Amino acid sequence: MTYHPKSSFMRVMIERGYLADCTDYQGLDEALNAGMVTAYIGYDATAKSLHVGHLLNIMMLRWLQKTGHKPITLMGGGTTKVGDPSFRADERPLLTPAQIDDNIDGMKQVFAKYLDYGEAGNGALMLDNAEWLDGLNYLEFLRDIGRHFSVNRMLSFESVKSRLDREQSLSFLEFNYMILQAYDFLELNRRYGCLLQMGGSDQWGNIVNGIDLTRRVLDHEIYGLTSPLLTTSDGRKMGKSAGGAVWLNGDMLTPYEFWQFWRNTTDADVGRFLKLYTELPVEECERLGALEGSEINDAKIVLANEVTTLCHGADAAAAAEATAREVFQKGGVGDDLPTLVLSADEVGEGISIVQVIVRAGLAKSGKEAKRLIAENGARLDDAPLEDAGLMLDRGALASPVKLSAGRKRHALVRME
């Protein structure tokens, strides 16, 4: 892209790799340069925590605030009742209002680590679209908002088209989602002077709808900016690990496991991830990303420490690194390892090692645990585990034992 931005925020977006597309580079850049811009990203409350897949956009909001602008985190208390059909093969399960509120409470804990919700001029706002969506009168909404939407155009959006092309059902409820999201942008502009919506590139169609609607109803000029949908260099979706989603809440994934996820980054991704997920200067990110051989491991530790410090604090990052050194370099047992606690009753006369491996989260099933042992991938207190029929009795668990799957995944097992 040849456009050279004047505003600090657009410069950061371009230099660090956050920018996939923008509805009007120059118009947005000039608005950002002229004064404080209010921008939002919407988050549907489908789980109790956000995960690493959300982190790119959270960092965009953080940079927005650091460069003097005002972020809004819009919780989808209303839209979660409908469910975003974008690029999904099936309909999301519908949640109860109580589940949605519970999820929003969990997600708020994450945002507070990255954004300042203080009273200052550019203090972040936490809003919930249920505030204006829950009380909508259906007939009025159809008359005032629905008339601005062409069904022909809605059917042409990739998120809808891909579902219909595969002859997968798209409910009328889900079809309404893009109208509701567009209405969010209109309401945020009307109530808070919000000029910018950001999101992943899969949200492009929804963002453009909101801009069109606001132009038609209020005759206001507003903007959209999207980030790339990230995959790792080996083609996996960012934010997924062998064990499932990489959650940002410490009670759903320990800081040590979070740290370990980043420490295990593929060599080719280190430089890019340092730019996107840390606040180190761009030149330093590029220098670290260009390291080779064993030195790239030092860069991965820097990445893991920086990202974990932002999410869980400096103490958690230091503890995770210390545990990793203890486990990997000295073969010892670190206090921070994920721990499976068994009662004496559960152990009884003996508990199968296969069952323990599954319960410790090192394998998804007994079959997978047996295969791990058969392929020499499992270790017990750093010694190869060769007998899938092994039973651990109370004597064996009198002190904690360390289980390992491969070189990078470990857990402690102890009896209470």
UniProtKB/TrEMBL annotation:
Motif 'KMSKS' region per record, residues: 237-241
Sample GO molecular function, one term: RNA binding
Motif residue range(s): 'HIGH' region: 45-54
Protein name according to UniProt: Tyrosine--tRNA ligase
Residues reported to bind ATP: K240
Record's catalysed reaction(s): tRNA(Tyr) + L-tyrosine + ATP = L-tyrosyl-tRNA(Tyr) + AMP + diphosphate + H(+)
Function: Catalyzes the attachment of tyrosine to tRNA(Tyr) in a two-step reaction: tyrosine is first activated by ATP to form Tyr-AMP and then transferred to the acceptor end of tRNA(Tyr).
Keyword Mitochondrion: no
EC number: 6.1.1.1
Organism in which the protein naturally occurs: Citreimonas salinaria
Binding site for L-tyrosine: Y40, Y177, Q181
Principal location listed in the UniProt entry: cytoplasm
Matching CDD domains: TyrRS_core (cd00805)
Top-tier EC class: ligase
Gene: tyrS
Keyword Isomerase: no
Keywords noted in UniProt: Aminoacyl-tRNA synthetase, ATP-binding, Cytoplasm, Ligase, Nucleotide-binding, Protein biosynthesis, RNA-binding
